[in-house]
């Protein structure tokens, strides 16, 4: 089973950019329009940004009658920044997307596209135009063109994906499913290279009983793997034992045995895995046994509070341990249902006596506090990377509210021989509109300041000026001509922690994971709608294929 926990450091650094102010209410606007779009980009026609180097970034949107985004185009133009010459375009990149807003989330494993703000991506086209050295102008035909097309079933599962490079189809992916939406086949074809085929079959309980993988190069089979699953069930239809037999290229059989125990709520509380032998890189048998034991503890509400994985390997010839370690996850929950505490430790049995884990290899602990409205007010975290107190790193994140409005957002990071502070301050006009975000960043020997200033124009555009240390580095203009400048706030859900709950498909690492049982705990924040444009466009970068 794969236990996924999002990196807290990525989260902490990202939240400095993405965490908007919590605003209980926003005042009116001079707009005479009635904005009907309920989510980002709130009916905006386009977002245009110019950097200090003169490069331009433009994003435009196409909507359906319900004001859902069904298409968007990104255009990036790079200029020669030689100060002694007239600016010359030397590169132009255009990326086009189409979306199906009726498909909120598509399967996101392997070659599948992931979730998208605007629904499933149905097509993606990227064109790059470079400078023609002979004419000194941009080429009229793209230097490079990539096209990707997706087709879905009505219920959102991906049926096929086709990749076209410069007019030539290079890759094709096809998927089939049974009546219960379980994947039954997965075919990957690299034209003029190889074809990989994966097939899956299930028993009457919906559990996987066979998996096969074949790789063909031309008419020759170059790789083959078959996995068979034999399940034993109790009177409640719960699996109590699974025998997994793996055959690679018709030899080197490997047998794994899984045992399962459940509580009275039919939740898995214990899973054991034993492997008769491991293979080295050349698929020769090595004489030792691997064992893994996973244990889950739940509270009265059925929420996971502890997850432990203990693994060891045993030399079959000598009967001695060759490795023994433990990983522990602990969770606690707030009254509002959100996550209140997360703790993770890695320990090692260094003397291999099979008893106590003497060495702490890694430890991380995070606490979350919320106000009565359910918004984050304080976050503290400590991380110990090697069990040595001198390696302790800590994060303190405090959100200060005034009359229900977040006015300060401060985070300090204390690590080995360094101390960093990030501070954000928010200002509004008399109508309650966000007009400025000022930030200060202080390292041990470096300080810099950033200010984002918003101007609301009569022509239904908003100008955002970004300055760093009083020097302008970016200007963004958001065009709301069609729908008018949006007012009010938007409630954001930012993924902070994903807790993986056990499911039977985890025994096959080649199978797309079923995340139906997993729980996501998010930092809920409320912001003026205009702040989303700052957060999303602050650090400009070309968006990659989904």
TrEMBL record:
<keyword id="KW-0732">Signal</keyword>
<feature type="signal peptide">
    <location>
        <begin position="1"/>
        <end position="25"/>
    </location>
</feature>
<protein>
    <recommendedName>
        <fullName>YD repeat-containing protein</fullName>
    </recommendedName>
</protein>
